[in-house]
């Protein structure tokens, strides 16, 4: 008992300067009282593409519908800024934080800092380093897609639908982000051992359209025999299409194009025959995110991962799915 009191006293002394409670740390995840309204933080990673814009709108719309105050920040593609954004939310004493982590490692520390401040965190669409922060212990849950499965679906579709040998250029997402890590792993695991599929090059396009175009232009010069492009998101795929067309190649015909995300623009390109296969990664997180927060406040058991169901788009179904794409 004495050692328990001594530990508590040391913990209290360590946090006295900041005024933060240690009871959340001592007892596990911070509790969230049931209230009619909440002040909730949403730390977005960036807003330079349609997927992020759709995700933010969904979160803002749901908060407005519920009458909650949403403290929104945009890290503009900087992990350091996003860490500072979380610090600011802690200082503002929000009731809870929704976080879409820019990178796995630096944001794991931010998650633990929020927990130490008595603020529960729910991760959206990207994860943090599992060796540094754990669900049910450091944060409530991860809500999003199964990124490994997304990559596997692309690899499996390619193996089934390619004609002859596949010579692949893989445009990777942001280095150090969970979707980039997992979409690569899923795809490479799915095609491993298939003698007819060869990955010529894998290079980051940072999930950005223009960077995807630039990288594709460079890789095309090094690998003019490429006949498959697998992009980790729509933006890079659209950039790659521009590079292919500039080089006199026909995307969708001379070179198969495959992507993950499923925004309206890429689904239209499937209809047009320039993209062959897209796995959806639905950005409309608002309803599920806030429902999970309410369940947590009500004391319900929350699973460590909540996986969104995602469809896919092919030449056969893209026209019918276009209207409901984000």
TrEMBL record:
<feature type="signal peptide">
    <location>
        <begin position="1"/>
        <end position="26"/>
    </location>
</feature>
<feature type="domain" description="Periplasmic binding protein">
    <location>
        <begin position="40"/>
        <end position="301"/>
    </location>
</feature>
<dbReference type="InterPro" id="IPR025997">
    <property type="entry name" value="SBP_2_dom"/>
</dbReference>
<comment type="similarity">
    <text>Belongs to the bacterial solute-binding protein 2 family.</text>
</comment>
<protein>
    <submittedName>
        <fullName>Sugar ABC transporter substrate-binding protein</fullName>
    </submittedName>
</protein>
<dbReference type="InterPro" id="IPR028082">
    <property type="entry name" value="Peripla_BP_I"/>
</dbReference>
<dbReference type="Pfam" id="PF13407">
    <property type="entry name" value="Peripla_BP_4"/>
</dbReference>
<keyword id="KW-0732">Signal</keyword>
């Amino acid at each position: 008992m004495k050692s328990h009191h001594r530990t508590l006293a040391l913990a209290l002394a360590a946090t006295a300067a900041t005024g933060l409670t240690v009871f959340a740390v001592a007892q596990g995840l911070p509790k969230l009282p049931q209230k009619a309204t909440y002040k909730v933080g949403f730390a977005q990673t960036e807003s330079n593409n349609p997927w992020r814009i759709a995700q933010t709108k969904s979160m803002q719309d749901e908060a407005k519908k519920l009458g909650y105050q949403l403290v929104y920040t945009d890290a503009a593609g900087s992990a350091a800024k996003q860490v500072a954004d979380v610090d600011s939310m802690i200082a503002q004493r929000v009731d809870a934080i929704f976080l879409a982590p820019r990178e796995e490692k630096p944001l794991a520390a931010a998650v633990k800092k929020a927990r130490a401040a008595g603020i529960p965190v729910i991760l959206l669409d990207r994860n943090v380093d599992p060796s540094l922060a754990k669900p049910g212990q450091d944060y409530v849950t991860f809500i999003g897609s199964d990124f490994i499965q997304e990559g596997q679906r692309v690899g499996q579709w390619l193996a089934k639908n390619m004609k002859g040998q596949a010579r692949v250029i893989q445009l990777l997402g942001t280095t150090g982000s969970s979707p980039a890590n997992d979409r690569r792993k899923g795809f490479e695991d799915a095609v491993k051992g298939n003698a007819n599929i060869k990955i010529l090059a894998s290079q980051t396009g940072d999930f950005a359209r223009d960077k995807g175009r630039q990288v594709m232009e460079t890789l095309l010069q090094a690998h003019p025999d490429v006949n498959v492009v697998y992009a980790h998101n729509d933006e890079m795929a659209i950039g790659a299409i521009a590079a292919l067309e500039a080089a006199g190649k026909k995307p969708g015909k001379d070179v198969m194009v495959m992507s993950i995300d499923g925004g309206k623009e890429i689904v239209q390109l499937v209809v047009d025959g320039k993209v062959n296969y897209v796995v959806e990664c639905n950005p409309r997180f608002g309803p599920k995110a806030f429902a999970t927060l309410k369940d947590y406040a009500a004391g319900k058991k929350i699973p460590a991962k909540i996986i969104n169901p995602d469809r896919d788009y092919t030449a056969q179904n893209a026209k019918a799915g276009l209207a409901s794409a984000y």
